[in-house]
Amino acid sequence: MIGRRIFVMALALGLAACGGSKPVQTKDGLTPVSVRVEWLLSSYHAPFFLGIDKGFYKDAGIELTVNEGRGSVQAAQLVGSGQDQFGFGSVDAIMRGAGAGMPLMSVANIMPVMGQAVYVRTASPIQKLQDLKGKSIAITPGGANDSLVPLLLGNVGLKPGDVKLVSADPTAKIRVFLKGDVDAMIAPAWSHSLFDAGGGARAFIFSDYGVKVVGYNIMAAKPLMQSDPDLVRRFVGATLKAWDYSRTHPDEALDALARHSPTNAEPKRRAGNAKDFANALRFVGPAVPGKPYGFQSATDWEESQKLFVTHGVLTKTLPVDQMMTNDFVAPAAN
Description:
The chain is α/β, with parallel strands linked by helices. Helix content is 37%, strand content 16%. The protein has helices at residues 2-14, 46-53, 56-59, 72-80, 91-99, 149-155, 170-179, 222-227, 229-248, 250-260, 267-281, 298-310; strands at residues 31-36, 62-67, 86-90, 104-109, 116-121, 136-139, 164-167, 184-188, 201-205, 216-221. The strands form two sheets. A five-stranded mixed sheet has the order 2-1-3-10-4, with helices on both faces. It has a five-stranded mixed sheet with strand order 7-6-8-5-9, with helices on one face. Strand 6 (136-139), helix 6 (149-155) and strand 7 form a beta-alpha-beta unit.
């Protein structure tokens, strides 16, 4: 209920901001556009900066600003209220926003499957998920993927009560895990560098054990989609080009990130980013065989929504075509 109230408040406060007027162009004839990513700038945000530095956005008539976020839910709120034209975030946040009345939709898929993982320390005797019996896992209460942990454990034969779930916020999770206060923790599959100071960690990927939900997407507000569909199409095209290029040129992408983000230019951070970005790119690619990169699977959305409802992340279902569209991804392929 709290999440729904936040969405509704953001909708009421910001709906006028996305009322449909087209952005003013710069003196160079470019359209200023912002994209809100779901977290502090990290390795897997590098493709946006590569797109800037390679001129992909400029070629599309866009002057792009990348804004940091504090979670996919916040990104959805800011896009739905018109404070950012586009957002990058998880599918559950888009579903929650749409369910709360936010006028936003997913306009392209970046990661067909969410890369979430259970981490154990490298020195841990835990060699398989079944070894977690009698152990503890740090989770974030209300986190969509954390809510699927019981399903994950059930898929490997563990019962409720076999594993102790310890609630902690994202920062505290890392701290208690590195201290050894818990045996495992939940984090994205591209988080390995976070654990280097504690001797490293090994990951068990959710999707390898039958827990699959749609991953990260590009979202936009419906008023913008209606008032300036060409801008949405140009942004989606440039973004998909940047991500696709980054798959085969990861170092170029990380160099671009470092130029725009001094924190990510530090040698130690840059080395960690190389490892993390390689893991993130494992989850980047086409969602539907025979369709272009970015094209979204309605079936995958339906199955993800059912899982989220079953495990308490969502309270209701919506028709998928109210939450996602492929109209802006290579329309000729639809």
